[in-house]
Design a protein that fits this description.
About 30% of the residues lie in helices and about 30% in strands. The chain is built from 6 helices and 9 strands; from the N terminus they run ββααββαβαβαβββα. The protein is globular, with a radius of gyration of 17 Å. Pfam families: Acetyltransf_3.
């Protein structure tokens, strides 16, 4: 079984409406098909990477390759967990969480997208809350960072809804035009999930893949004075 070699295949994050997990081949095929369909108004480009400007078949292939690349390049020092978001048995999008030198910095970054027909129903908040629960309660993170271009009000709204604070801006070039990416930061002490309950299962056997142990997570709940 693949989970004997990659235990994160047993990881599940569940919320009242969603389950987040590493995709099976069928899940990944469903996500690739979803990526070929509409994700946003084609007159706008809300993503800094512009990946949705590619033709549908290319978007599908790049979605599969992006997932495979994240697994192939994974090290405890630099990792990205690419999860599918599932509602009522249907893959509706993807939610990623990553960390660089996480064992030292204890900081994560996130990214996500939803198929267009699943937007506007609160799923974006719920799936981000799920991985923030993983970060703060499962992995002992100290902070989470994210960002979105100012032409992506939905993503900006999710960050504000979940309590992130503005953390500066970055200039981007999108479709040959200047754009501004708003950065956000959320400290562990400020995390209060608006979604309850959120449950984690199957995490502990895979903690070493994140460069940490269970004792590290427990210690993060009781930091030394001044930390």
């Amino acid at each position: 079984m693949i989970n004997e070699h990659w235990p994160l295949y047993d990881l599940r994050i569940t919320t009242p409406r969603l389950e987040l997990r590493l995709p099976t081949p069928d899940d990944l095929a469903a996500l690739a098909t979803l990526s070929a369909g509409p994700i946003h108004d084609p007159a706008r480009q809300p993503f800094a990477s512009e990946w949705t400007d590619a033709p549908p078949a290319e978007r599908s292939r790049s979605t599969v390759q992006h997932h495979w690349r994240s697994l192939a390049d994974w090290t405890p020092e630099k990792w990205t967990l690419q999860l599918v978001t599932v509602a009522d048995g249907t893959v509706i999008g993807t939610q990623a969480i990553g960390g660089d030198d996480f064992a030292v910095l204890r900081e994560v970054h996130t990214g996500s997208w939803l198929g267009r027909r699943y937007q506007g129903r609160g799923f974006g908040v719920e799936m981000r809350a799920a991985v923030l629960h993983l970060a703060f309660h499962g992995l002992g993170a100290r902070a989470a960072v994210t960002g979105a271009v100012t032409d992506n009000p939905a993503s900006l709204g999710v960050s504000r809804r979940l309590g992130y604070a503005p953390n500066g801006t970055v200039s981007r070039s999108i479709r040959g035009e200047p754009a501004v990416e708003q950065r956000f930061r959320l400290e562990r002490a400020g995390w209060r999930s608006p979604i309850e309950p959120i449950t984690l299962t199957g995490l502990e056997p895979g903690l070493a893949l994140f460069g940490i142990q269970a004792s590290n997570v427990a210690a993060s709940d009781h930091p030394a004075p001044g930390v």
